[in-house]
Structure formats: C-alpha cells, structure tokens
Amino acid sequence: MDQQTTQQRHLALDGAINLRDLGGYVGRDGRTVQWGKIYRSGHMAKMSAAGQQQLLALGITEIHDFRRPEERQRAPTPVVGPRIVDGYDMSIGSVSKFWDYLFAGGMSDQRAFDLVLNSYRSCAAEVVPGYRQLFSHLLRDDCGATLFHCAAGKDRTGMAAALILTALGVDREAIIEDYMLTAKYFDSAVLMGLIEEHLLNAGAKEWQRSWLEPYCGVYPEYLLGFFESVDELSGNIDDYLEQQLGIGAAEREVLAARYLQG
C-alpha cells in the first residue's frame, strides 16, 4: 500500500479514534473495494461537534457498536443522525487470567502476550452471533455507508474488518496490513492509561507497563491466531463464512456487487 493510499484511508476527524475507510484494497476478480462505503473505528465519545459534523458528511447511515453495556456507559456515542445499533455486547476472551497471574506474582511479558494471543486463538465460535448480525446488515438492500467500532478499533473491529475483506476477496497479506495500521493510527498510551486506572481501582499495587503493552498494541500473530481459531472450528475461512456467518457463494456475489468496483 502506497503512502498516499494509506493517508486517504485514515480520517483524522476531530476527536475520532483510529477511524479508517476500508476502500481501495484489491478484491475479487481484480476489482477494488469502494471508498466511502465501509468504515472502522474506535469509540466516538470524544468527538467534538465539528468532528461529528465531519462524520455526518461521510453519509454514514448506521453505526454498529460492538462494545459491552458497561463500555457504552463509560464512553457513550454522541453522534446524532445515523442509526446506532448497539446490541452486540461482544467481548474477546477474558481478563480474569491476567488478574490471577498479576495478584499471584506470576505475570511476565511473555505470559501477557500469550494471554492476548490465546484469546484470539479461541474466539472463532464466540464472535459468531455478532459478526453474523453485521454481515446481515451489509447484505440489506437499503444498506448505506456503514461504520462499525469497538473501544480502540483494534480487536473486535480488526477481526470484523478481516472477515469483510476476506468475503470481498482481498488477500491475506493486505488484510494483515490493514489490521496493523492500528499501530500507526491508534495512540496506545491512552488505552495504557485506562488499564492502569482499572488496576489501581482493583487494588493492584505493582505492575510493569511491558505487561500491559500486549493489550494495547497489535501484532500480526494476533490476527493469524484468529484465523487459526477459524480453521480449527470450520476447517477453513470459506467454510467459516458460509457455515457460521451465513456468507456463502450467493451472499459473496451480493457483497461484491455492492462494495467492489472496476
């Protein structure tokens, strides 16, 4: 991906977090994903009035919020206009093991990384209801420009983007490249601060920031771990899309007609 395309992909709206356009990737039959159709981001609670107006100017008709209720309560979406779809209540793995190791004095850099990686490696079945719902929206005849997001726009959002791009025929290398753009456009220090606040509130006395970094960043191994989880559940990504998410050959034709050009 060239620098100009990368810059076009990122939308630096005032207060937006990791907001990106999925357009421009080469998909099925050499056609490209249309710009201005599907967007991904982190939460929008900090968007200014000007940023919200910029967002509305993109023509987005629906915002799909993957976050859990407590996340939405802490950082509500202020944007008025698009329909907010927030019944996903998705989570990837559990942080309980992190707390167990932390309070038992058994945490390490590698263990923290492995905990996040294992969450990706074991979530293919867990995310099916949410992603099936998202795809059903993308297939609707009245579907306009769509934005989907979680908190940071990296884990739940990153896997959703990977599945959409896969369904559109984008190759795995480009999909991983898209996933890794979060390292460029997301300020992980913000998430680090939130995690440290939670640690203090939970009574933690001591930790190393390097233990938190795996929870704040993105690594190719994470997304590859998700694809491993998909293969373990369904055999391969195509069967996962069809059997678990309801995206077979006919549905992929509809998606291609709607979101590819050229």
UniProtKB/TrEMBL annotation:
One of the entry's Gene Ontology molecular-function terms is: phosphoprotein phosphatase activity
Q: Which InterPro entries match?
A: Prot-tyrosine_phosphatase-like, Tyr/Ser_Pase_IphP-type, Tyr_Pase_AS
Q: Which SUPFAM superfamilies is this protein grouped with?
A: (Phosphotyrosine protein) phosphatases II (SSF52799)
A Pfam family matched in the record: Y_phosphatase3
PROSITE patterns membership: TYR_PHOSPHATASE_1
**What span is annotated as the signal peptide, if there is one?**
none
Q: Which family does it belong to?
A: Belongs to the protein-tyrosine phosphatase family.
Annotated protein name in UniProt = Tyrosine-protein phosphatase
Organism encoding this protein: Gammaproteobacteria bacterium LSUCC0057
